[in-house]
Design brief:
about 45% helix, 5-stranded mixed sheet, globular, 8 strands, alpha/beta, about 270 residues
């Protein structure tokens, strides 16, 4: 089984740290990274996504992007991966062990932030793995969780660019809304937003555009136009945020932290 993103992060940093200067070409990194996972089979390595790309390579790319976002990896030159000082610090902290000192709540809070970032990445990865039809039904259920009514997924052969539609109650009024889903990994450009608006103009009063990737600046600028149906853009990050907010497909368990404030008991003593 292909390891999860969270399981790949440290091994990837460890592999990079072995190269001179902490940088290498991806083609040199992959073979060494694969050896870090003895349970990774040949079948795993040749498994493909619907797009035809390697599932293993795709997952490592997502891990790389996550580490770049955290500041633990960089791309100093085209076609080169590198570990940063922050990445080396993470390796050092991991190698030092927990020690015998009691856990610092501030460190636990930082760890929680790191966990949340990784959790969001994994959640988005789950959405990317859905089939187009599953993603459409997911969008329908998410909108229902936010109070949309009478939501339906259209038939694939007659959707005209519309994947689903329903109603949104706003005060005493009810709006006809439609949604479209693009389970992409490349950015959604403006023409896709314009085509969706053209498909719903005159019949619906609002559109919602879901994508697992992101929207180009041109697409964002075209989402609201005077005299035209507004299009609400929901990229992968936004969708994951909504899921966590509504606990839709997500279960939250509170984490209790305790802070030593004994010294405050002896302040202002008589």
């Amino acid at each position: 089984m292909i390891p999860k993103q969270s399981q790949i992060e440290l091994p990837l940093l460890q592999v990079l740290a072995r190269f001179p200067g902490g940088e290498a070409k991806p083609s040199d990194v992959y073979p060494l990274l694969e050896k870090r996972f003895p349970n990774l089979t040949k079948e795993d390595l040749v498994e493909q996504l619907e797009s035809g790309s390697s599932k293993w390579t795709n997952r490592v790319q997502w891990v790389r992007q996550s580490l770049i976002t955290k500041g633990e990896m960089s791309s100093p030159r085209r076609g080169v991966w590198a570990i940063t000082d922050q990445g080396r610090a993470r390796l050092a902290a991991n190698n030092s062990g927990a020690g015998t000192e009691p856990a610092n709540p501030l460190n636990l809070m930082a760890l929680q932030d790191e966990y949340l970032t990784q959790f969001k990445d994994n959640l988005l990865e789950r959405l990317i793995a859905l089939t187009p039809e599953q993603f459409e039904h997911f969008a329908k259920k998410l909108l229902e969780a936010y109070g949309f009514l009478d939501m339906k997924v259209t038939t694939v052969s007659h959707d005209g660019g519309i994947d689903g539609h329903g109603l949104l109650k706003v005060g005493l009024a009810t709006m006809n809304v439609a949604f479209q889903c693009k389970r992409w990994q490349t950015s959604v450009p403006r023409p896709e937003v314009d085509k969706f608006r053209g498909a719903i103009q005159g019949e619906f009063e609002q559109g919602l555009f879901f994508t697992t990737s992101e929207f180009t600046e041109g697409a964002k600028g075209a989402s609201v136009k005077r005299g035209a149906v507004p299009i609400i853009l929901l990229d992968g990050e936004s969708i994951v945020g909504l899921m966590i907010e509504k606990q839709f497909g997500v279960r939250r368990k509170p984490l209790e932290l305790y802070f030593d404030e004994v010294d405050r008991l002896f302040v202002d003593r008589d």
